[in-house]
Design brief:
13-stranded mixed β-sheet, alpha/beta, about 325 residues, single chain, 10 helices
Length: about 325
């Protein structure tokens, strides 16, 4: 039996049948936004600027690489950014939680650990991003806060909104949940400061490309190879527990790798037995999955490191927005 998300990418009979529920969902989303706008629900304003990186669809769109790029860019400009996130998949008993590069992803979530490792920035996670941001502001010296995936978290006021869309899958059939993949209607994109398209160009959108840098061994982080080096192998195991594993698999195949695919749900909590039973061929995974597999990694386990590349026009526009915040 197909999962419901299998019907989100075209306008089929199942999606059409779910439209009444989709309209109800859209109405409730609109009502919630109005409640924040007129003050029925209270939003928290911080004493430092807040930049939100999010999307209007469920599933992976490439937010994490953009958050990492943004944090490093702000550091180059002389800022001291802090990052807040939901901590999805974490099972901590209390929130918010501070995240360090060595934190357990089972407690605080996989993406925050990855972000902390790659940026060196302070990271605070919790279901209520506003509370997580206030805690960070109280205890940590930062002058700008990046909210990872917080477009619909209106309890935290924001100064800049950046929406990320999947350039390959787009916005599916254009319907809201449960008939389609959208958390808000397409018109929401007209209200953000910038829209970034991951992978392909789009009208009025800035293109982001994910460049594969090195393939790094989980047990020996100083051991790195090029992705093309694995094309000489007769077989490579490809493991992905992300929102769009097909994107990862296609990247490996484009580099000439002969794959045996192993797809898992997004934010999957890997256990040693999940990777047992595979032979000694190289096993390549995403960097997000690697933070959960290090504790039981084997010598043939590698992760593919990627970096976001953005056009100079995006950087110019972003700098103008940040300059406006600084002056204001």
């Amino acid at each position: 039996m197909k999962r419901i998300d299998a019907y989100w990418w075209d306008r089929n009979g199942v999606a059409i049948a779910l439209l009444p529920l989709s309209w109800l969902f859209c109405f409730l989303v609109w009502l919630r936004r109005i409640a924040y706008r007129i003050g029925i629900f209270r939003s928290k304003r911080l004493s430092v600027p807040v930049i939100v990186v999010g999307n209007i669809s469920v599933g992976g769109t490439g937010k994490t690489p953009l958050v990492i790029w943004l944090a490093l860019h702000l550091q180059k400009l002389g800022f001291k950014p802090g990052i807040v996130s939901r901590g999805y998949g974490g099972n901590a008993q209390y929130w918010p939680q501070q995240v360090l590069p060595g934190s357990d992803p089972r407690t605080v979530g996989d993406e925050p650990v990855l972000i902390a490792s790659r940026t060196g920035c302070p990271v605070s996670v919790g279901p209520d991003r506003a509370i997580a941001a206030l805690a960070m502001q109280k205890y940590i010296d930062c002058d700008v806060i990046i909210s990872d995936d917080g477009m619909q978290h209106y309890a935290l006021r924001r100064n800049i909104e950046i929406a990320v869309v999947d350039g390959e899958r787009g916005l599916g059939n254009g319907f809201c949940l449960p008939a389609g993949p959208l958390r808000e209607t397409v018109k929401r994109l007209e209200k953000v400061d910038m829209v970034v398209s991951n992978g392909t160009e789009g009208r009025g959108r800035y293109v982001m490309q994910l460049k594969q840098t090195f393939v790094i061994n989980l047990l020996q982080p100083d051991k790195a190879m090029r992705l093309e080096d694995f094309a000489r192998e007769s077989k490579v195991h490809a493991v992905a527990g992300i929102g769009n594993p097909e994107r990862f698999f296609k990247q490996l195949e484009t580099a000439g790798l002969k794959l045996e695919r192993h797809g898992f749900p997004d934010h999957y909590q890997f256990q040693p037995e999940d990777l047992e039973g595979m032979d000694d061929a190289p096993l390549l995974m995403t960097e997000k999955d690697a933070v959960k597999c290090r504790r039981f990694a084997q010598p043939n386990h590698w992760f593919v490191q990627v970096e976001a590349e953005l056009h100079d026009m995006f950087e110019h526009r972003l700098n103008k927005l940040i300059e406006g915040l600084s002056n204001g």
